[in-house]
Amino acid sequence: MAARDIHGPEAPWKEFQVVGKSHRKIDGMAKATGEAVYADDIQLPGMLHAKTLRSPHAHAKIVSIDTSRALALKGVHAVITGADLPIKYGVIPWTPDETALATDRVRFIGDEVAAVAAIDEDTANAALELIDVEYEVLHAYFDPREALERSEPTIHESRKNNNVSKHVELEFGDVDGAAETADLVVKGEYQFHGSTHGAIEPHCAVAKVSPEGVLTLWSATQISHYVHRALARVLEWEPQKIRVIQPCIGGAFGGKSDPFSLEFCVAKLAEITGRPVKMLWTREEVFYAHRGRHPMQLAYRTSATKDGKITGVDAKILIDGGSYSSFGLVTTYYSGQLLTGPYDFPSYRFNSTRVFTNKPPCGPKRGHGSVQPRFAFECQLDEVAEQLGIDPIEIRRKNFHGEHTQTVNGQRITSSGYMECLDKVERGSAWRERHRQLPTGQGLGVAGSMYISGTNYPIYPNEMPQAGIQLKADRSGLVTVFSGANDIGQGSNSVVRYIVAEELGMDPTDVRVLAADSDLCPVDLGAYSSRVTFMVGNAAVDAARKLRAKLVAAVAEHWEVEEKRVRLIMGRAIDLEDTEKVLSTREAIQLAEAKFDTLGSTGAYNTPTLGGDYRGGTIGASPAYSFTAHIVEAHVDEETGRITVPKVWCAHDCGRALNPRLVAGQIEGSVYMGIAEALMEDHKVNRFGLHSGPSLLDYRMPTAIDTPDIETYIVESVDPEGPYGAKEAGEGPLHSAIPALANAIHDAVGIRLRELPFTPAKVLAALAEKRMSEGAAAGGAAAKAMAKKETH
Amino acid sequence: MRGIELDVNGDRLETAAPDHWTLLEVLRYKLGLTGSKQGCDKGDCGACTVLVDGQPVLSCLTLAAQAVGKEITTVEGLRPMHLQSGGVGADPIQDAFDRCGALQCGFCQPGMMLSARALVAANASPSREEIQKALSGNLCRCTGYTQILEAVETAIAERVGAEAPRPAWVEDREHVREGELEARTPAKEAK
C-alpha cells in the first residue's frame, strides 16, 4: 500500500463543507426528467437488431446447426453460432467455462445457441424459427446432491470425473475439541433457496465498429473493465481497439457483473455486418441469464459455554451453482470466509462444495455468498440464546469481537460500530418491553452481520491500482472528474463529486463527472464486493489533494503568503489571516494554470496486504468491514400460515456517511430485498429444468404495499482507512434481515423455520409438527402458551 | 405500417409504425421519447406508465392506435409543462424525488412519478396507504419504496406549505450531533 492510499478520516480543513450532508445526486434530475440515457435508449443510424436462439433442453449435445434458412430470410444480415465465437471466457480467469454461444453442448434451458442480426426485432425473431438445431439429449441434473454423487455424464468436459465446481475446506483452531468440551452444542440443517436480482432494466448492449477499426460497446454492465478484457480475449482483438462504455444503468445488484453472451454477439455481428447492432433481452431471457443467489444446503454445529460464549462453529455447505462457474470460486470461499465476525469464536471450520447442475447459472447477488451462511448461523445463535436463557441481543454483545482485532481466519478488523447498531435497534424497537411479551402470533427477532468494503482479491492477479481517478481543472472554473467506476444507481458518481468538491472547496455543481468510458477514464475494477465508495473514494481524495496542492501553491505565491494560510472553501480561496484577500475558484485555477501549465491530476487506490497466510486467505480479506443489526417484527396467522412484516429496524455501520440520504437508501433497499427473498421470491426450475415462472408476475417481487415499514439508523464508526472514514452500505444491510425474520417467527409462534422461503405451507407444517410434539408432552406446553396469552 | 398522429406533451406528432406496435414502442423508437422505460413488455412492472387523458396507463399494453385523439403525458413533458405554467425548476414531484433520494437507478421512476402525479391530481391529501396503493403497479428494485413514499409525501406537504415528514435516520443523526443520543426517549409504541 502506497502513501497515496491512506488519507486519514479527517476533513481536509477544520470541518466538512460537503461531506456528511444530504446533497442531491449528480444524475438525479437527469433521471427524473427522462433525459438520462440507458443502453436501450441508444439508437444509431443503420442500426440492426439482434436476437438469441436458446436451448430447449436442459442438457444436450449439439449434433448439428443449420442456419441457411434463416440467412435466406429477407432482412437478415447475419447469423452466428458457437463456431464464430469459440474462445472460452469466465469472469474468474481460473475458470473459463463459458462461450458466447454454445459450441457443442447446451447446459440449461435458455442457454445461448445462435444469434441473428436483422433489420428489426420481428425479422430477427422470425429468423430464429428458421435455424435448425439437432440435439442429442443427455441426462440432466437438477438436484445438487445427485450432481455431487454421480459423475457420468459430467456437465463440463474440463471436470473429468465429477460435477464439482469448487471445493474448499478450511479449519481454524480445534472445532471438534470445542464441541467435546462445550456446555451446549446446537446442530441444525438449513436450506437457502435461489433468488434473482430483478433489476427493472433488462440487459442490453449496442456495438459498432468504426471504419478505423475501433469497436465501441455500450452495455448495461456493472463491471466494464472485465467486459473489456473478455471482449479482447474472445474476439481476439487488441484491447486498445476496444472501447467499452457503460451508459446509465437500470439496476444491477450483482446481476450485471459477468460478461454476458449478448455483449460478444453484438460485437461480432457489428464486425460482420459493418453496421451498429443492438440486442435487448426480454424479461424472460433475463431470468435465464440469472447469476443470482446460490441455493445452499447448510449444516451447522455451534458450540457454546453455559454463559453464552461461542467456542466453535462447524459448517458443511453444499452449493448449487447452476450450469457455469461465473464467480463460483469466490462464492465458495465467501460462504465460509465471511462468517467470522462480528463475533469472536476461537475455532471455526467450513467445508463448502459448489456443484454444477443444469439450471440457469448462479452468481453474485447482493451479499454474495455470505447471506446464506449468515442466515443459518444467526438462527443457531438464537437457539443457543434460547436454550441458555440469555437475551438474544445480550448473547450477541457477549460474543462481539471488538474493534481493531483479527478474526479466527486471519481477517483484519479495523473500525466496528456493531455494538452501537445493537443499541439502536434495541431501543428503536422497544425490544426489552416487547420481545417474548407480544401476544401469540406476533414476535420480534434480532440478528447481526458483517460485510466487506471491497476485496483485496483483484480477480486477475496484477500489481496495478484497483481504482483510479483523473481530474481536469478548466480555466472556466469547472473541474471534470474522469472516473472508471460503474455508477449503478448507488451514487458512485455523486460520491466522487462530493469528495472532489470537499477537497477543492468548490460548489459540488461545479464538479462534473464522466465515468465508465474506457477511452476516457482510468481503470476501476467495477461495482462489486461493495468496493466502490471505499476504493474510488480514496482515489478521488488522492487526486484532489494533488490538484489542491497546486491551487494553494499558486494562490500563496500570488498573495506572497505562506501556503498554510490559504484555504479553499465554498467556491473561493481565502487567506486565513487576512479577510481582505479573497479569490474565486476560477481565479485560483487560472493562477495555477499560469504557474504549472495545463492543470490536472491523477489519483489511485490499492489495498494493503491483508488476509491469512494460507491458500484462499486473501479471499474475503477487506480493508474494512461494515456491520449491521436488524430487528424484525413478524406477525404470523396461525390459520393461514401467512407471515406479514409490519416493521423492520435496521442499524448499519457504514463508517462516515458521505451522504446520509444515499446511505439510508442503500440500507432500505437492502432490507426490502432481504425480506422479499425470504417471503416472496423463489427462483427455481421444474422437473424438466424449465424455469417455473420467468416473468415479473410469476416471480413475485414486493410492491409498495408489500414492503415493510423500515426504520433506519446510520452508525458512523469512522474507519481509519476509508475515504474520510467511509465504508460500504450497499450489501451489508441485507444479510441479517433474513435470520432476524426467522427469529421473529419463532418469537411469534414458537416454530423454527430452517428452510427458505418462508411460505404459508411451511409455516402450517411447522405449526402442525409443533402441536404434535406438544401433544406428546401432555399439554404442558399448551398451558405455557395460555399463560403467555394471559399476560396480555 | 400505418401513419399515426399522437398528441404528446402538448405537441401533435406524426409518425408511421406497424399496426401491432404499442404506444411504448412508438414513443421510444419512433418519436425518440425514451424516458418511458420497458422493463417487462407485458404489463407487470409499470416502468412504461404514461398518462393518457390524465389516467396512468401501461403503454406496453396499449396499442399506439388506441391512443390516437387522446392527451398523452410522458416524463419528458413534466418539466416543460411546469415551466410553461410559470413554475421554476422542475415539477414538484420530480424535485421531491430528486431531493428525497428516490432516484437510485432511476429506471422505474418515470412510471412511478406519473402514477404519483395522477394520484395527487385526483386526491390532494392522500394517506400513506392510498399512496402505496396508487404506486403498487410500479415495481422498484432499488429503494425499498421508503424514499419514494417520502418523496410523494414531501411533494404533497410542500404544496400546502406543511412540513414534510422526517425519516428516523434524520432525527437520529440530529440527536447524535447534539449529543443527546443517550437522553433520547426510547421508541414509540408499536402499532
From TrEMBL, chain A:
Residue span, Aldehyde oxidase/xanthine dehydrogenase a/b hammerhead domain: 33-139
Originating species: Saltatorellus ferox
Hydrolase as UniProt keyword: no
Domain of life: Bacteria
Enzyme class, UniProt record, top EC level: oxidoreductase
Keyword Oxidoreductase: yes
Protein name: 4-hydroxybenzoyl-CoA reductase subunit alpha
Entry keyword set: Oxidoreductase
The protein's Enzyme Commission number: 1.3.7.9
Gene that encodes the chain: hcrA
InterPro entries: Ald_Oxase/Xan_DH_a/b (IPR000674), Ald_Oxase/Xan_DH_a/b_sf (IPR036856), Ald_Oxase/xanthine_DH-like (IPR016208), AldOxase/xan_DH_MoCoBD1 (IPR008274), AldOxase/xan_DH_MoCoBD2 (IPR046867), AldOxase/xan_DH_Mopterin-bd_sf (IPR037165)
GO MF: iron ion binding; oxidoreductase activity
TrEMBL record, chain B:
Residues passing through the membrane, by range: none
Top-tier EC class: oxidoreductase
InterPro entries listed in its UniProt record: 2Fe-2S-bd, 2Fe-2S-bd_dom_sf, 2Fe-2S_ferredoxin-like_sf, 2Fe-2S_ferredoxin-type, 2Fe2S_fd_BS, Beta-grasp_dom_sf, Diverse_Oxidoreductases
Signal peptide: none
Region feature Disordered, mapped onto this chain: 171-191
EC number: 1.3.7.9
GO MF, one example: oxidoreductase activity
SUPFAM superfamilies named among the record's database cross-references: 2Fe-2S ferredoxin-like, CO dehydrogenase ISP C-domain like
Keywords: 2Fe-2S, Iron, Iron-sulfur, Metal-binding, Oxidoreductase
CDD domains referenced in this protein's UniProt entry, alphabetically: fer2
Protein name, per record: 4-hydroxybenzoyl-CoA reductase subunit gamma
